[in-house]
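Your task:
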Amino acid sequence: MTNQRKNCPHCGSTSTLPIAYGLMSDETHQENAKERKYVWGGCVIHSGTSATDYCKDCKKHYDCIVNFWDKNLDCPNC
């Protein structure tokens, strides 16, 4: 998983990490704890409320995953 260094819309920082979802092994969690390549978002993706990126400076998440079939869905957390 690569970090594209998106600017945080809340503070403008480029100190961001992608958010990964899905079931991960203990080994994967331990490896990420050392290298901190991503933030684990949990096992389930919720359309409209699951973010794709996390800012390490202001500690906020942003760019929510939206089901493209639901055109009226806005993320309440972004």
Summary: The mean pLDDT is 80. Residues 26-35 form the longest helix (10 residues). The helical segments are 26-35.
